[in-house]
Design brief:
The protein has nine helices and 15 strands. The protein has about 350 residues and is of the alpha/beta class. The strands form three sheets. Strands 10, 11, 12, 13, 14 and 15 form a six-stranded mixed β-sheet that branches. A hairpin with a 5-residue loop joins strand 3 (about 45) and strand 4. Helix 1 packs across helix 4 (about 170-180) and helix 5 packs parallel to helix 9.
Length: about 350
């Protein structure tokens, strides 16, 4: 993803680090191969994407999760078991952060609302049975501070879902498998309708891309000092969009971990894009913030009014991702070539 990184990177560079994920057996779960086994009152097991088998005496009843992971689990039907979250949960005005999705944030204990924040005392007080997190850079759990991870992991077992360098459907499927192991009904009308919408949106995007060959799309993120051109080789959503035929620009000189290329604002026009997908997360600069950057105004996509929002950290549920595919398809259908 744009600016996703290891625990030592700044929040700005947070989606920049990567590394190939060896899935193989990691995507297989204990029991029937659906991601985990759980029975009421019985033992509970789940094998996560680190290859770690989690064995508990009973199905977890108190789950703390990274905000995005919690939001995805909630979409799949996990509700009362969610007791706490960490990560972007509330905005400064108290409203839910977009990354919180449909989560009932006022009911949940927020043990950290920004990168580097994780209140271990609050976490311990929640008496967690399980910690759930996204894993962009194996084996690191997103937003779990490296300096205190040992204390955190000593309080409860943890589950990691691979969310970097794999196509978008994979983390959605794995999150669904975990939700099912936690007791959610993946055959519910809500979940099946969301999956059908996602599949339809995928085909709509495929058709839109096929009808507009040569329409160049750049996924990017803006900071005060740098313009990040993101790679469709590492970001899970971009990998999927490219597989559907979207002509995504591939940065020539990505960072060591391959997620993005750092460009000075003077060189922001290095790649000629007809459409720019711009990082919409709270910490990234938005078009309204970029008036002082002459090079921004000069970009062909900006001049053409073809800048759309991008969520480099999608919530990995069918409900969370279907609207993203639909919006991109709509943009591609109406966008014009700028050169």
């Amino acid at each position: 993803m744009s600016n996703i990184g290891a625990q030592h990177l700044s929040r700005r560079g947070l989606l920049g680090a990567g590394g190939a994920l060896a899935l193989g057996a990691l995507i297989s779960a204990c029991g029937g191969g659906d991601g985990g086994t759980a029975s009421s009152g019985g033992a509970w097991t789940f094998t996560d994407d680190r290859g770690t088998k989690i064995d508990l005496k009973a199905r977890p009843e108190r789950v703390v999760a990274y905000t995005g992971a919690a939001a995805a689990l909630y979409d799949f039907g996990v509700d009362e078991q969610l007791v706490g979250v960490y990560g972007p949960t509330k905005l400064k005005d108290g409203k839910p952060d977009p990354q919180a999705g449909n989560l009932p944030v006022d009911r949940l204990e927020i043990i950290g609302n920004a990168y580097g924040e994780f209140n271990i005392e609050k976490y311990a007080a929640l008496r967690p049975d399980l910690l759930v997190d996204d894993m962009f850079v194996p084996p690191n759990l997103f937003y779990v501070p490296a300096e205190s991870k040992d204390k955190i992991f000593a309080l409860a077992r943890s589950v990691a879902i691979s969310t970097g360098a794999v196509p978008l459907p994979k983390p959605i499927e794995r999150t669904g498998a975990l939700a099912a192991a936690l007791g959610a009904d993946l055959k519910s009308a809500k979940v099946t309708a969301a999956k059908a919408r996602f599949e339809k949106a995928s085909e709509t995007l495929r058709a839109a891309a096929k009808a507009r060959p040569g329409l160049k799309v750049l996924a990017a993120s803006a900071s005060p000092d740098l313009f990040y051109a993101s790679s469709p080789g590492k970001n899970t959503d971009l990998i999927y969009y490219k597989s559907l035929g979207v002509d995504l620009i591939v940065p020539e000189k990505p960072s060591k971990d391959g997620y993005f290329e750092e460009l000075s604002w003077e060189n922001a026009g290095k790649y000629k894009a007809d459409v720019i997908m711009l990082d919409a997360r709270t910490q990234a600069l938005q078009p309204k913030d970029l008036g002082s950057k002459p090079s921004w105004k000069d970009l062909p996509a900006v001049k053409a009014g073809q800048v759309i929002t991008w969520q480099p950290e999608p919530r990995f549920s069918y409900e969370g991702c279907a609207p993203l595919l639909e919006a991109l398809a709509t943009t591609i259908q109406s966008a014009k070539k700028t050169a």
